[in-house]
Amino acid sequence: MRVTGTGPAKRESGGENRGADSRSRRNARVIEMGLGGPSEDSDTRGRILLAAAALFGERGYASTSLRAIAGSVGMTPPALYWYFPSKQAILHALLRRMFIDFLGAIEADVVGPEPEDKLRQLVRAHVRRGVDQPRIGPYEAIFGARQLAQFLSEEEQAKLVAAQRSHLDLLRGTLREGMARGCFRQLDVTATAFAILSMCDYVTTWWKPTGPIGADELATQYEELAVRMVRRGMG
């Protein structure tokens, strides 16, 4: 996947050597033509993304080399180029998985019909998908997705922002609908939406599959917490 944009991404210190750049361009063309690589082995791509996430968290994006990423999954750099044409392509795929794919899957689970149903569905999907997906790695807390995103093109950064905005707007729209229909009390919609999303986002910082609360029970508890925040007569 090639990252392009209307504005320059932040440059990292150092850089790949010319041979790597040449291989990157060559393999990018192979990928774009659909002749192999990523479409054939999503498991390997996933392992590369998880390894890159951990290294970005430990060292920072600029200080992480493709050689280090390849070595952490038992590959040579030329083998890694078969799956990703550049380090920026790895970063783009990682952040796309974190934001665009993740949030899009949640939104697909919100089918209604009533505002409370939609709120429950959104919260349950956010919690369940958050704890079910493979942990991206420690960089979310240590390095931060916002810091990583600065290395993308302006166009790709805008896509991430748009995905987050769409998710926020879905929740705010659900809250407004519930208020208009009299099932939710009068709320500061934006503050409430951010409170609910923050609650869902941070569950992965403490929940463990080996703990006393199962994923389904956890999602049910979070549904109830969200509904109690907004239901008429509860506050």
- Provide the structure class: mainly alpha
> Which superfamily, in CATH terms, is the homologous superfamily of the largest domain?
Tetracycline Repressor, domain 2
The outline comes out as: elongated
Percent strand: under 5%
Question: Over the alpha carbons, how many angstroms does the gyration radius reach?
Answer: 20 Å
Q: What count of helical segments does DSSP give?
A: 11
- Given this structure, which CATH class of the largest domain is correct? Mainly Alpha
The low-confidence runs, each spanning 5 or more residues with pLDDT under 50, are 1-9, 11-40
What number of domains? 2
Count of extended strands? 0
CATH topology of the largest domain: Tetracycline Repressor, domain 2
The major sheet is characterized as: none
The succession of helices and strands, N to C, reads HHHHHHHHHHH
Helical proportion, percent range: 55-70%
Separation of termini? 49 Å
CATH architecture label of the largest domain: Orthogonal Bundle
Average pLDDT confidence is 79
Can you walk through the features of this model?
This protein is an all-alpha fold and 235 residues long. The chain folds into two domains: 18-85, Arc Repressor Mutant, subunit A (Orthogonal Bundle), CATH 1.10.10.60; 95-230, Orthogonal Bundle (Tetracycline Repressor, domain 2), CATH 1.10.357.10. It contains eleven helices and no strands. The N and C termini lie far apart (49 Å).
